[in-house]
Amino acid sequence: MLPDGGHVERCPAVQLSVLRDLVDIRTALRAAHVVVPDALQMAIDRMAPMLRLFRHGDGRLAQFNDTSEEYGALADLLLTRSEVRARPPQSAPHSGFQRLACGKTIVVADTGAPPPPGLDRHAHAGTLSFEMSVGRERLIVNCGAYRGNNPDWRRAARNTAAHSTLIVADTNSAEIHDDLTLGHRPAVTDTERAEAEGSQLIAATHDGYVAQFGLAHARHLFLAADGEDLRGEDNLTGKDGANGAHDAAFTIRFHLHPTVQVSLIQDGAAALLRLAGGAGFRLRAQGAQMSLAESIYLGSGEIKKTQQIVLAGKVGGKPDGTIGATVKWAIRREGRKAAEE
């Protein structure tokens, strides 16, 4: 267990499983009239709030590192049995996760490095990916965890492209071996968090593309106090001529939950998103070309077809001799007055 209460494998499903084991051990000790060790109680006290960090508005878990959404009822029961009422931490720097929660909106972001060798059996190449829910409805998701026996599907679910983040030249940010353990893995630096007048901002940078392309990826996420305006900025930066990075193609993916309806508007300059409950959101972007593409969703335990919004662009040179790209995007509630740019 890490100091912030997260499990070292960085898998929400493992977090739940280990916490359940600890609570069961405590129950058995109490039934045998044995004093519960302080270390066991302290572990439960730290792990339960961290499990809450991973929950969306529907009570189910966020889909990072081999986790699907299907643990809602079990999580409810386990948190009740834990007897821990502490609120979820907003920042878990040791586990490498951040939570933005304003109004009815929850954003959970992976801002940590993959777990070390030997503890990476659940690891995905999803660094700096995020998920977003509004009330009890999911909007932006990762594809989730594959539970079948097809190794191609299992590998596909672990690829960077199966996550709502940026990918360079269709290359995973972490190397995935044939046995699904990780080889080269990114380090995460410059993680920051700030809050002002109810709004929340997080930022982080990873070097998963430095070795091959000489490019660092930085992501900023800002959630307005009312929860109806999520703004993002993705930056690629490097030195010209480094590993053929000039003109490298990149894409930023926003995988959508299967219940979300999407259509391009304004001649492809924006996308209109409609939740099943009727709430509408508009995604706009600058610095990349927007399109729609097919996607798959594994969160419910079966393969479901869905869609994704793709922002595509190329790395370019700058007058100072560096190279890079900047894409700014925003997801805003329709029918409400948006915050100033």
Secondary-structure map:
Elements: H1 12-31, H2 38-53, H3 72-82, E1 91-92, E2 97-102, E3 105-110, E4 130-134, E5 137-141, H4 151-158, E6 166-168, E7 188-196, E8 199-209, H5 210-213, E9 215-223, E10 229-239, E11 249-256, E12 261-265, E13 270-274, E14 280-286, E15 289-297, E16 304-314, E17 316-317, E18 322-333
Antiparallel strand pairs: 1-2, 2-3, 3-4, 4-5, 5-11, 6-11, 7-8, 8-9, 9-10, 10-18, 11-16, 12-13, 13-14, 14-18, 15-16, 17-18
Helix pairs in contact: 1-2, 1-3
Summary keywords:
single chain; 341 residues; alpha+beta; Beta-galactosidase, Chain A, domain 5; 9-stranded antiparallel sheet; 18 strands; 17% helix; 37% strand; globular; disordered C terminus
Walk me through this protein's architecture.
The strands form two sheets. Strands 1, 2, 3, 4, 5, 6, 11, 15 and 16 form a nine-stranded antiparallel sheet that branches. Strands 7, 8, 9, 10, 12, 13, 14, 17 and 18 form a nine-stranded antiparallel sheet that branches. The chain has helices at 12-31, 38-53, 72-82, 151-158, 210-213; strands spanning 91-92, 97-102, 105-110, 130-134, 137-141, 166-168, 188-196, 199-209, 215-223, 229-239, 249-256, 261-265, 270-274, 280-286, 289-297, 304-314, 316-317, 322-333. 17% of the residues lie in helices and 37% in strands. Helix 1 packs antiparallel against helix 2 and helix 1 packs across helix 3. By secondary structure, it is of the alpha+beta class. It contains five helices and 18 strands. The protein is globular and about 70 Å long.
